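Hi U.,

Before I forget, here's the chain from the pilot set. I'm dumping it here mostly so it's searchable later in email.
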Amino acid sequence: MFREAHSAIQLIAAAAAFGLVISIWLAGVVLWTAKKRKRMDQMQERLKLAESAPNDGPGRVLRLWHNGTEATTTVPGMISGSFFDRFERMRIEANFHSPMSIILIRLAAAMLIAAMIGYVTANSPVIVIAAPVAVLIVFWIYLNQRIAKSAAIFERQLIDALELASRSLRVGHPLVGAFRLIAEELPAPMGEMFGRICQQQELGVSMEDAMQNIARDSVSEDMALFATSVVIQIRSGGNLADMMQRLAAVIRERQRLARRVRVLTAQTQFSKRVLLSMPFMVFVLLNVINPRYMQPLYTTGAGEIIAIVSAFILLLGWIMMNWLSKLTV
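Structure:
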């Protein structure tokens, strides 16, 4: 009787200590997030980057005065909408050719297969729930990697397109001719994008509307900046070749800074991958070497609670290390 009471007291003390540590950690995260949000709000207030009024539509309106006349254009803002709209946006960013419905069906089938494998191998509700969640996390990581890779390819091609358009304009070609040259010389996705601009021009759409449509459908902020610059130059007048050359230099400098950021955060990223992969590697290795040793983790209530808490702690660690790897001004 005394031994059972002593064990219960130890269990309560361990739970209380764990709760205290988690509470302190969450309090620190909340304070750090609030401080970061305050700094971002101050920076946006100083730079006057607040969102436009509701009657201005999505995005920000830029106004430029030239020779007593006003030239205005709109920089496309963030796309808002339902979950399916955002997922469709991410599908386009990841350069998936399959429709969204096919991707969701394949993802659901993979999650169902993972749940069935977990039920057959472990016969535990925790594994049945954790297996499809693991499939979803792996798909999310893969999707983000494809988005980052597509964005890097797009930015490199955009620099080549701007330099090619600048040289084409300097030798006397019109703007549509420069865009058609880009569509013929560069591969997808940049060639296809400028090809759509030329097609819209042939169908009677103005250059300003065609540029804004492409910027709205694009996944790159640099493309939105390029479209806005071209529209302002068309309305107010200016040297398009010099503008494209300067914009290419700005984008190239941004890529150089982005590579430097990746170098500075490489150690944190590598540590994150190692620390997150080690528990899974040890888990699989112990199941292969001695399945009976790992059996209480599936068959007992305490083992299932430990598995759930461990997964929650890994998720918190992943979120925290992602925050630590981000550089803020």
